[in-house]
Specification:
single chain, 6-stranded parallel β-sheet, alpha/beta, about 250 residues
Length: about 250
C-alpha cells in the first residue's frame, strides 16, 4: 500500500505540475499576444494621426537640419522601384532635397533615369555650389553602390602610393586628413549624411562608404514594403531634436 500511495502521489504531482506549466504558458502567450495587439493598435493610430497632421510638433519640424539624407536599401528590396519613388516623394514633401540612394548591387543606380524622371529630380554634380546645397530648387539625388566604395579606396591607395613611393616609408604620413584629401582628389569622398535610414531586414549600413559616416545618425526603418509616411516623419523629427556632441 505504501508503494501504491507513493506512486499515486508522484503521479498526481506530475499531472498538476504539467497542467500548471501548460496553464502558465497559455496565460503568458495570451498576455504577449494582447501586448502586441495593443502595440499595433497604438502605432496604427499614431501613424494615422501623424499623417493627418494632428500632432503640432511634427507639423513644425525643421527639415533644414537634415542637409544631406542617405537612404540605404537592401538590394532585393531595391527592385521595388515604385516603392522607392513613393518614398522619395514623401522625403520631398517633408522638405529634404539632398538625398543619397544606396544599395550594394547598384540596382538603384541602374534605374536612376526612371527615378530622376518620376521624382522631377536631378543628379548630384561632383561639385555643388553652396546655394544649390543649402537652398536647392529641386530634389538632388546621388546614387551609390558598394563598388563605388571599393573603387574609391583603390583609387585613393594608388594616388597615395604614387605620391609617397619615393619617400622614406614613414607610415605615420597616412593620417585621416591625408586619406580624406586623397578620396576628395579622386572624386570619391562625397558629403557626409546627417541622417542615414536603412530599409531592409539587416540592421547595418550594408557597405555604405564608412569614411562618409563619421557623425551620421543611423536609423533602421524596417522593410521597404512596410514603410509609412509617419515613421519617416518621426525619424527626421527625432534627429532634429537630438543634440550631437562632436568632441574635440
Amino acid at each position: 500500500m505504501d508503494c501504491r500511495e507513493r506512486y499515486l502521489h508522484s503521479y498526481w504531482i506530475t499531472k498538476v505540475t504539467r497542467f500548471s506549466a501548460i496553464l502558465l504558458w497559455n496565460v503568458l502567450h495570451f498576455l504577449v499576444t494582447i501586448w502586441y495587439w495593443v502595440n499595433d493598435v497604438y502605432y496604427t493610430l499614431e501613424s494615422y494621426l501623424i499623417t493627418c497632421g494632428f500632432f503640432k510638433k511634427y507639423r513644425s519640424l525643421d527639415p533644414s537640419k537634415v542637409k544631406y539624407l542617405a537612404i540605404v536599401i537592401e538590394s532585393e528590396e531595391a527592385h521595388q522601384i515604385s516603392e522607392v519613388i513613393e518614398l522619395l516623394h514623401w522625403v520631398t514633401a517633408i522638405g529634404v532635397k539632398n538625398v543619397c540612394l544606396y544599395d550594394m548591387e547598384g540596382v538603384l543606380k541602374q534605374s536612376q533615369e526612371t527615378i530622376i524622371a518620376e521624382c522631377d529630380a536631378r543628379p548630384r554634380k561632383a561639385v555643388e555650389t553652396d546655394e544649390a546645397v543649402l537652398k536647392p530648387s529641386q530634389l538632388i539625388l546621388e546614387f551609390v553602390s558598394v563598388s563605388d566604395g571599393k573603387e574609391g579606396v583603390v583609387k585613393a591607395a594608388n594616388l597615395l602610393f604614387s605620391k609617397y613611393k619615393d619617400g622614406n616609408g614613414d607610415k605615420t604620413k597616412f593620417t585621416e586628413p591625408i586619406i580624406d584629401e586623397a578620396l576628395q582628389l579622386v572624386g570619391c569622398s562625397g558629403p557626409e549624411p546627417d541622417l542615414l535610414l536603412i530599409y531592409g531586414p539587416a540592421r547595418c549600413h550594408l557597405g555604405f562608404p564608412p569614411w562618409r559616416l563619421s557623425y551620421t545618425e543611423i536609423v533602421h526603418m524596417g522593410n521597404l514594403k512596410s514603410k509609412k509616411y509617419s515613421f519617416l516623419i518621426k525619424a527626421i523629427y527625432r534627429f532634429t531634436t537630438v543634440c550631437q556632441n562632436y568632441g574635440t
